[in-house]
Amino acid sequence: xxxxxxxxxxxxxxxxxxxxxxxxxxxxxxxxxxxxxxxxxxxxxxxxxxxxxxxxxxxxxxxxxxxxxxxxxxxxxxxxxxxxxxxxxxxxxxxxxxxxxxxxxxxxxxxxxxxxxxxxxxxxxxxxxxxxxxxxxxxxxxxxxxxxxxxxxxxxxxxxxxxxxxxxxxxxxxxxxxxxxxxxxxxxxxxxxxxxxxxxxxxxxxxxxxxxxxxxxxxxxxxxxxxxxxxxxxxxxxxxxxxxxxxxxxxxxxxxxxxxxxxxxxxxxxxxxxxxxxxxxxxxxxxxxxxxxxxxxxxxxxxxxxxxxxxxxxxxxxxxxxxxxxxxxxxxxxxxxxxxxxxxxxxxxxxxxxxxxxxxxxxxxxxxxx
Length: 370
Known about the structure:
Layout: H1 2-23, H2 29-43, E1 57-58, H3 64-77, E2 84-88, E3 93-98, E4 103-109, H4 110-115, H5 118-131, H6 141-161, H7 175-213, H8 215-233, H9 235-244, H10 248-265, H11 278-298, H12 316-328, H13 340-364
Parallel strand pairs: 2-4
Antiparallel strand pairs: 1-2, 3-4
Helix pairs in contact: 1-2, 1-6, 3-5, 5-8, 5-9, 6-7, 8-9, 9-12, 10-11
């Protein structure tokens, strides 16, 4: 209902603004009000999703073995297949809807793919595919477009009213004129900030309300994704995939350390042989973190945790309850598996795109995500 009211209000603002601009030329005030309404409508327009043009994007012809696995996962989970795969440097995987036709692209994190065992990879991919399905109204056309428009509108209006402090050299040529011009610009920025405060606040409040109202649907979608992923990849693999999400922050820190190390010391150990071990180092660090976590959870210090491990308080409502629900529910065997031959073929298909992601990480010094 909130999404419907938002779409109706946006369409009404556009219609009124257009009529005032076109039919109000006999006065001066009406076209100005119409242009303001059109500008507000432009800020709150629906924004179709877009893919990052710098990240490597794979189609089925580029990676047939990978897409064959993804199609088997999608068919086993009963969801629509993905049309593309975009590789990222984050320890996560999710589905991005892009374009007016809302095509599905799987944003696949190379640290997750390389650092997890094969069945955990299948479980993580199945969870991402199902969680973005029709059960989650936040990812649907109607509510999803409203959320995207509100989020983009808040960002646009915040950028339009922001002002950066100016630093003027008093000894520069015509410094007084520059200072006067800067004061005029800052005064206009403050006026724009006051003008945009009300619509920005209303858009932010509407976004929070819509997120709150759709929270039960998002929670049900997450639970449904866990159960379907357990049927596809097995219950133990899905449990392990959920537990490994706790490693995301530590792996991000290790990625940053490796990036700084290579940029600072110019490590090129595999340059002469044509071998690059950047993602291998990340995978080895992931294995070490997993072993340390398992040792800590099975040690004496974990006896008072009730088997929950070391979850952060913010994850109690999601990670711990989802794992407990899976552990106490039916134990499903795997219906989709990844054998050694397919794993080797997929690694060969991801080698060159993985090097492209590594170059982006080393260039920017940050982890890029779709």
